[in-house]
Amino acid sequence: MNKNSQNSFDTVSEKALARADMTKMFSFYTLLDPTKQGIDQSNIASNERPLIVNCAGNYASDFLFTTDKKTGRLDYQLIYVDSGKLTMFYGECKIVLKEGDIVLLPPETPYKYTNIGSKKISYFWVHFTGGEAAKRLEEYSIKPFPTVYETKPGNHIPQRFFAIFDAFSKRNIHLERELSALLERLLITVTRSVTTGEKQGALSRS
Fold it and tell me: How far apart are CA 199 and CA 142, in angstroms?
């Protein structure tokens, strides 16, 4: 495991995340690039293993915010809206994501998202890379944004994220392999949970 690996909290409480009266944010990291600063330290592309989790976390807040990555990132990002609404911008395309929606942001693609118009928001995210990441996504028919996936209630996607957070918190031996397996389980759950659209449920909105 990278000696610079870190996590922002030792434990994660689902009960704490249920409160939406203030900002609650936590994140966990495996790969860190010492030549970069801040969040960009986890902005890494690697073919070292088939699937690699760079970082993952949850953001829950009452406050307006905007994330703007004008040059995108080197890895993939999967975002799941647990509650509230998230407005996503992709070129000239503007899409409002609602509770239960999930999107995949591909590498090196500019993007911007905000919760304007919906103050209360909670979403989960995971950044990942790997030599077979693109192949796995194709196998599971998970297409990149602006494709949006609507998921059915009781889809177990939050539980899959919490399993990733739990692994980060415990940091047992072979953490990277455990995270890879948990990421793959998350991707499979996404594929099984979508409700409408082509193949496993792609839904494009414009």
Answer: 9
Other C-beta atoms lying within 10 Å of the C-beta of residue 108: 10
Neighbour count for residue 41 (Cβ, 10 Å): 18
Q: Which residues pair with 93 in a beta bridge?
A: 90
89: β partners: 94, 112
pLDDT in tens, the chain (206 residues): 443 444 333 334 444 344 434 446 667 777 555 666 556 667 788 999 999 999 999 998 888 888 888 888 999 999 999 999 999 988 778 899 999 999 999 999 888 998 876 568 999 999 999 999 999 999 999 999 889 999 988 999 999 999 999 999 999 999 999 999 999 999 999 999 997 543 333 343 43
Tell me how far apart the alpha carbons of residues 161 and 38 are, in angstroms, rounded to a whole number: 23
pTM of the model: 0.80
